[in-house]
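ESCALATION

Customer reports they have been waiting on this structure for their group meeting. Please prioritize. Original submission:
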Amino acid sequence: MIPRFFCPFPLHPGATVELAAETAHHALKVLRVGAGDTATLFDGRGGQWRATLNPAGKSLRATLEEFDASDCEPPLALTLVQALAASDKMDFVVQKAVELGVRHIQPVAAKRSLIRLAGERAERRVEHWRNVAIAACEQCGRNRVPSVAPILDLPQYLGLAAQDNAIRFVCAPGATGSLRDLAAPALPVSLLVGPEGGFEEGELLAARAAGFEPIGLGPRILRTETAGLGAVAAMMALWGDW
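Update from on-call: job pushed to the front of the queue and completed.
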């Protein structure tokens, strides 16, 4: 496969760019690219570039040659609102949500979230998740990097969500609502998923007051890292590009 690399700056026709040190190290030491090899570069604005690689010591330059405007974004504008879970689970959720086609990821802190993040520690973790999203785009072929928003407390998020022009769902065990019984949405969709221990009853009531419709995911109890991704996959099958 032709390697794909994200560039955190705008790309222009005919330009020769130097890849980030970490990207260059991975390309040279792991992928073993050489002079004249081909790669695909994208800057997150849509489309991708075919480029020729030119190593120079530990550095790696790429000359842009041909632009491909193809896009693989689904028609469904979906935001995954994921309650904080253990770090490895959050990494997994972010990675797979990007692969499935989620457009935005909003981490929220719920009462039963097992981790607590604030200040500089929270900022570092969000930056880590953004890098996970970039790596997932490089792997799955997406040219637009989904946004990973700063962490919000659940009440703060619900107050903002109530003002959005979006259709809202919350995963709730025992809910009778089913995705397959709903018409294809004409607006963006937000999906709220609880932490390992689930939402407290008061949190579910607050979510419903903010316009979130409870949906069930079958008779089985799903883990937090399974519930949201399962619902996303179902939405993409029903309303997306599957």
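Sent to customer with the following note: The chain has a mean pLDDT of 91.
Escalation resolved.
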